[in-house]
Amino acid sequence: MTCPSPFMTPEREAFRTNLNRFFDSEVKPNLEKWEADRAVPWEMHERVADLGVFGFGIPEEYGGLGFDDAFMRADYGEAAFGCGASGFAAAVGGRSISIGPISRLAPENFKRTVLPEIIAGRMGSALAITEPGGGSDVSNMATRAERKGKGWVLNGAKAYITGGMEAQWFVVGARTGGAGLAGISLFLVEADSPGFTRTPLGNKQGWHCSEQAMLHFDDCQLPDTALIGPENKGFLAIMNNFNYERLSMIAGSLGMMKLCYTSALDWARERRTFGQRLIEHQVIAHKFAEISARIDMIEAYLERICWAINQGAMPAAEIAKAKVQATKALEFTASEGMQIFGGASYLVGNPVERVWREVKVMAIGGGSEEIMRDLAVRQMGLAGQ
Ligand SMILES: Cc1cc2nc3c(=O)[nH]c(=O)nc-3n(C[C@H](O)[C@H](O)[C@H](O)COP(=O)(O)OP(=O)(O)OC[C@H]3O[C@@H](n4cnc5c(N)ncnc54)[C@H](O)[C@@H]3O)c2cc1C
Predict the structure, then answer these.
(1) What does the pLDDT look like over 313-370, one tens digit per residue?
(2) What is the pLDDT of residue 3?
(3) Which sequence ranges form a coiled-coil region, renumbered to this chain (predicted)?
């Protein structure tokens, strides 16, 4: 955006500069290899952790930063998803969507010993909510936990779990009570629990350098302390946690749009057709006006939401609406970016080609566009008035 943001601060500028330096020097040169390898080396988890980005909102005694800042959370999301392969953000990010519930709900001893290892990138954690039978209707989850003796027995399965093959700890949603949202609790499950197995997800359209897993719980034995947070009150914690995941996906979509914009612009300034550079054809120039407007709108919306969060609010309806608008804008931008590149966009290795393959995971993951609109309507109290 050409007009300055009223929300930019010297601290944030410095943070963004630091992020850019890191991604330019340590991530971007290796992305092609990591995508081909279908993996990011584990030391990158630690290098990303060194930026402090897994410690927002967590006290220092648990390995966190001791402060929170929604703008900086978003700045990281923009950089990590927009680096050229948004799967990189997912590869190191299974922990970021599970750290929230762990830091709020896990037993004190766990927060003092294991959580710092996760925040420092030395150990992996993942969030396991989606099931083979459905992800959108969280209140209908079928995985069940039952008390047995001094512990719990878990039965069921989870699908598409990011970081699921490498993580040591899982935040798992399971039914402990009756039907509906009031019967769900959260459990902290260690990977070597008896009765727990995992299998990698098949070949994916995108996010190649990240891994996802199916988790299987067959009479999985858990200690009493595995239940985190109050019994049958897990649904609210899951919903609260989704807000931060969605914030990062809005910011991520923004970063991916900027990547499309800058790479297509470089191309349009270089490529000549009919005796002129592409950018000199009005039809092509107008595409940039449209893309740029969408980038500006998403950025402004995102900053407004970040400001509200920093004031102590959690504007769930705005986050839901913004996620839909961000992924719709991303879809438009990737499509127009492909048109601008022409045939070159159809070749693997073109930056916009990869974004095009990554659009749908942003539009479906973390709450699909349909479900986000539904949530916004409910949060705004529009239905039933
Ligand atoms: C690469 C990847 C990584 C993921 N990582 C994780 C993870 O780490 N942890 C995790 O728990 N989950 C993860 N997910 C799962 C993701 O959050 C779900 O895919 C998503 O929530 C949608 O659930 P579903 O796929 O079961 O679709 P379904 O719920 O079966 O829905 C199918 C379609 O129907 C639409 N739909 C459903 N209900 C309605 C309705 N009432 N009205 C209108 N339309 C409706 C949906 O919007 C969707 O388009 C991941 C998914 C992918 C692809």
Answers:
(1) 999 999 999 999 999 999 999 999 999 999 999 999 899 999 999 999 999 999 999 9
(2) 86
(3) none
* Cα–Cα distance, 166 to 126 (Å, whole number): 9
Span 168-195, pLDDT tens digits: 999 999 999 999 999 999 999 999 999 9
| Identity of residue 295 | I
The token pair that represents 182 in the structure block: 């009031």
Is the Cβ atom of 127 under 6 angstroms away from ligand 1? yes
SS3 227: strand
Q: Where are the alpha helices (DSSP H) in the chain?
A: 10-22, 31-37, 43-50, 70-81, 87-93, 96-105, 108-113, 115-119, 234-270, 282-310, 316-341, 351-364, 369-379
Which DSSP string corresponds to 133-173?
Answer: TBSS-GGG---EEEEETTEEEEEEEEEEEETTTT-SEEEEE
Query: Which residue segments constitute the domains of the chain, with CATH numbers given?
Result: 10-119 (1.10.540.10), 125-235 (2.40.110.10), 238-379 (1.20.140.10)
Could you report the per-residue pLDDT of 58-90, keeping only the tens digit for each?
999 999 999 999 999 999 999 999 999 999 999
Residue with tokens 């592409």: 278
Confidence of residue 383 (pLDDT cuts 50, 70, 90): confident
Whole-number Å distance between alpha carbons of 166 and 168: 7
Q: Best substitution site from 189, 368, 374 to test ligand 1's pocket, by max atoms within 8 Å of Cβ?
A: 368
Task: Give the residue among 189, 36, 198, 219 at the shortest CA–CA distance from 127.
Answer: 189
Give the ligand 1 atom nearest the CA of 137.
29
Contacts (Cβ under 8 Å, ≥6 apart) of 210: 40, 87, 88, 90, 91, 93, 162, 163
Q: If pLDDT is split at 50, 70 and 90, which confidence band does 384 have?
A: low
Nearest atom (ligand 1) to Cα of 367? 21
What is the distance between the alpha carbons of residues 84 and 82, in angstroms, rounded to a whole number?
A: 6
